[in-house]
Amino acid sequence: MTTSEQAVLALRDLSVSLPPGGDRPLAVDQVTFSVAREEILCIVGESGSGKSMVAHAIMGLLPEPYVKVAGGSARLNGENLFTMSRARQRAVRGIGMGMIFQEPMTALNPLMRVGEQIEEALKLHSRLDSRGRRARVLELLQDVGLPNPGDLRRSYPFRLSGGQRQRVMIAIALALEPDLLIADEPTTALDVTTQKQILDLIRKVQTACGMGVIFITHDFGVVAEIATSVAVMQHGKCVEYGSADTVLNRPEHPYTRELIAAVPHYIEHREDFTPKGQALLKAEAVRKVFRVGSGFLRRGRELVAADNVSLSIHPGETVGVVGESGSGKSTLGRCIVGLHKADGGRIVFQGTDLVGLSRKRFRPFRKDVQMIFQDPYASLNPRYRVADIISQGPIAFGTPRKQAHARAEELLELVGLDPSAARRFPHEFSGGQRQRISIARALALDPKLLIADEPVSALDVSVQTQVLDLLDDIRHQLGLSMLFITHDLRVAAQVCDTIAVMQTGRIVELGSCRDVFSRPQHEYTRTLLDAIPGQGWEIPKDLRHLRADRARRPRELSQ
Amino acid sequence: MAKIGLFLARRLVKAAIILFFIVLINFALIRAAPGDPASVMAGEAGASDERYVELLRQRFGLDEPLHTQMFIYVTSVFQGDLGYSYRQGRNVSALILERLPATLLLTVTAFVFALAMGVLLGTLAAMKVGRWADTAITTLALISYATPLFWLGLMLILLFSVQLGWLPSFGFESVGAGFTGIDRMLDVAAHMVLPVLTLGLFYMAVYTRLTRSSILEIHDMDFVKTARSKGVTEGKVMVFHVLRNAILPVITFAGFQAGHLIGGSILVETVFAWPGIGRLAFNALLQRDYQVLLGVFVVTSILVLLFNIITDLLYTIVDPRIEVE
Q1: N or C: where does chain B have the smaller number of CB atoms within 10 Å of the terminal CB?
Q2: What is the DSSP string of B294-322?
Q3: A319 close to A313: Cβ distance less than 8 angstroms
Q4: CB-closest option in B222, B244, B325 to A111
């Protein structure tokens, strides 16, 4: 930490006001911090904590006049950003500071070539002629580690992967060598291996240009990986601010402690799972091919989403399927539930092969295999009351309405919600609560197997832990088997007995959770494990017990 | 380039197949309506005795079995022969070609007017969202959107022709005035004002609403923020980042409207006595002049198919994400 004289950015008492009628009058409440050259300040907090608002306020990108700076100052190299003219602000935005956003898929103009988008900043703020600009664009693309800059310059963003787009964003932000780089959750939407590359890149360019960096994230692993100092935000206030070492290893504020305790990690004390009896589900050489872009008079090309996938799930076992986006892990789950029809292989559930069953003959099995989806905001019908959402399945299978509704209330209680929730609509609940409702819905048919497709990846860490604990709890109580699909190895480590690692449609490694984590066999598994951020950091010992406590009282903690 | 050629070839084959079915269905539909042209003509001639009607039927080939008639018609259409109108005593192709320019002049002008005004008003409304200019534009759009065409046409005539006497109320040009050159153009233009307004206002309203909502949607997207974070000026952000993306749905709808350029003007041409295809079709319908009616159908269908292909092609140029494959 440095004094404000040397700081690239000194933020003092920043307040941002929300329009009347919001859930609180101030989105950001008197936040003070500073960033020096070569410093990486991580702002940590959960959704709604106001961490993005701070970044947007500094960049002058708040959606005015609804949300605006209500007080305080932000001095970039001594010059107050909030009092300067609009024209000066624009100039500073290009030259003094650059920003990277969370979602690389939407952060680039889809109709402009990559090169043009980088050049735009140069055109506005530099004196380079067109040849000089082109050279600079190529140099930047090279710097951010993109292959073939010559061709890439002329391609459109849709041709690029998420990681590549994020690199382009970094190139744009770096075009004029700013003193300050603001990165708003730049790796949240990326796969773990890509995340590692982007983190490395940010660190590299930061050292090369001696920039100050504000890095916004909700992931303490990432914080441990790159931060030199940390600010923790809750409800718009900065509750803890200090060096990375202090905040990570000796956190003081209860909220910081809670967040750190919630970081998913491998639990050593859990016993290995020993399969007993017949497998509940056995997938043998499952294959699924999608045909893309086909139509009338056109064949399209084939995309193999799952190839020769075999695994088995025993009663009471949780099998984790881990892989990056596009690895075919969701396709596998959907084939088992019967949402996709597998093109080959066998999926044997309690002795019956589900592949090739007609709709009608498959129907009885729908009861036994239920699915929990990733996005709790999209997976519940907004026009149905919670009671109807939960009881729709049983009613379809012949349970009398009244009985089904009574059962729905029991289930709500089981997942840690008040039974009165049954009469309300999904939009009245938070993300974590909705995911609890989804779980209740899946349980309503007394399934034997749950397919959980990234059930916690849309949730904040603290809520994530609650939902994971709930799933684990219920699974033991009801003796369920579960196929747990996730991209996050840390989450998988926490809940799974067996882990299958998938890469481009194939299972490359299958073994007990302990083995996969301690003695990974396949090269790809090692790459994945290696990419987990913040491995050098261990959750402080005194915080580990916090976790065990919370699992036992889901009701109070349900926010 | 080869890709585009292949795309065109494929689309043309498809279009031909679709056209074949359209012709078949049209033919069947028309024959499903009660009353044949022979009896209508005989009735109009005042000689409705059986033998005369039978004679007429024989002459027009109406006594052949239906499938033979259909076969003959379809083959001749695909050879470019739209048949012969016995009522008018002329070739259908000639009739249609003669009327086509007037209709195209009217509808293309209305199309350009609607598109230009719609995008302009929509952009204005989006930039001033929530303020009085936005309210005024949205209200205007809503009124234009909700008013029936023929009523609007009649009201415009009442106001501008009957009450104020500023503009002519019907026809393509002043009959017998003998204007030439610039004078004639001005005369035709004056005649066009009311029908173009009547025809264009509805689509203008559609484009206004479409542009406005599309801009508002794009305005909050991340790449617009990216542009701002580069320090791009507001005007440039609007034109190069927002509008360029917001225009895409407008193009989709414009392609749709372009397909209606010919067929959609029947009402307006009738109200304003505009000598175009629309009126030709309307009169043919009243007189049961099958050949003309079918001919108009074929021509409008071909235009719809053509405009669809053009829109798709245009889309691949405007939006690099859509490729011709």
Answers
A1: N
A2: HHHHHHHHHHHHHHHHHHHHHHHHH-TTS
A3: yes
A4: B244
Cα B43 to Cα B35, B36, B37: the distances in Å are: 11, 11, 10
- Which residues of A fall within a CB distance of 8 Å from B229? 59, 61, 93, 98-99, 173
Within 10 angstroms of residue A107's Cβ, the number of other Cβ atoms is 27
Tens digits of pLDDT across chain B (325 residues): 667 788 888 888 989 899 889 888 888 887 777 766 677 767 766 666 777 777 777 777 777 777 888 788 788 878 877 777 777 778 888 888 888 888 888 888 988 999 999 999 999 998 888 888 888 988 888 888 888 877 887 788 778 777 777 777 777 776 666 777 777 777 777 788 888 888 888 889 999 999 999 999 888 888 998 888 888 888 888 888 898 889 888 988 888 888 776 666 778 888 888 888 888 888 888 877 778 888 888 888 888 888 888 888 888 888 877 765 5
B131 interface with A at CB cutoff 8 Å: no
Q: How many C-beta atoms surround the C-beta of residue B268 within 10 A?
A: 27
CB A407 within 8 A of CB A435: no
CB proximity A94 to B under 8 Å = yes
Contacts with B233 from chain A: Cβ below 8 Å: 90, 124
d(CA A329, CA A485): 7
A9-17/A97-100 β-pairing: unpaired
**A93 CB within 8 Å of a chain B CB:** yes
Contact (Cβ atoms closer than 8 angstroms) between residue A187 and residue A163 = no
Residue A156 in contact with partner chain B when CB distance is under 8 A: yes
Is B226 near chain A, with CB under 8 Å?
yes
Give the separation between CA A367 and CA B236, rounded to whole angstroms: 56
Q: How far is CA B45 from CA B48, B57, B59, B74, B293, in A?
A: 8, 15, 16, 30, 21
Domain boundaries along the sequence of chain A:
97-175, 281-368+450-557, 378-446
Q: What share of chain B is helix, strand, coil (3-state, %, to 5)?
A: 75, 0, 20
> What number is the ipTM of this complex?
0.77
pLDDT in tens, A56-92: 999 988 887 788 888 888 988 888 888 888 888 888 8
Question: Long-range contacts: A270-276, Cβ < 8 Å, 24+?
Answer: A272/A497, A272/A512, A272/A513, A272/A514, A273/A314, A273/A316, A273/A317, A273/A318, A273/A497, A273/A498, A273/A512, A275/A314, A275/A317, A276/A314, A276/A315, A276/A316
Positions of CATH 1.10.3720.10 in chain B: 101-318
Instruction: Inform me whether the C-beta atom of residue B232 falls under 8 Å from chain A C-beta atoms.
Output: yes
Nearest to A242 by CA among A395, A81, A414, A43: A43
Instruction: Report which of A176, A181, A191, A263 is spatially closest to residue A216, judged by C-alpha positions.
Output: A181
Are residues B225 and A61, on separate chains, in Cβ contact within 8 Å? yes
Alpha-carbon distance of A267 to A545, in angstroms, equals 11
- Cα angle value B286/B288/B289 (rounded, 5°): 110
Tokens of B49: 């005795």
Q: Which of B7, B2, B5, B9 is nearest to B322 (CA)?
A: B7
In the sheet where A449-453 sits, what is the strand order?
A369-372, A449-453, A481-486, A318-322, A498-503, A506-512
- Separation of CA B89 from chain center: 27
Running DSSP on this structure, what letter comes out for residue A539?
A: -
Mutate to test the interface with A, among B3, B18, B229 (most CBs of A within 10 A): B229
CATH topology of domain B101-318: MetI-like fold (1.10.3720)
Q: Which of B7, B12, B18, B226 to mutate to test the interface with A (most CBs of A within 10 A)?
A: B226
User: What are the chain A neighbours of B214 within 8 Å (beta carbons)?
Assistant: none
In sequence order, what are the residues at sequence separation of 6 or more whose Cβ sits closer than 8 angstroms to the Cβ of residue B168?
Answer: B161, B174, B190, B191
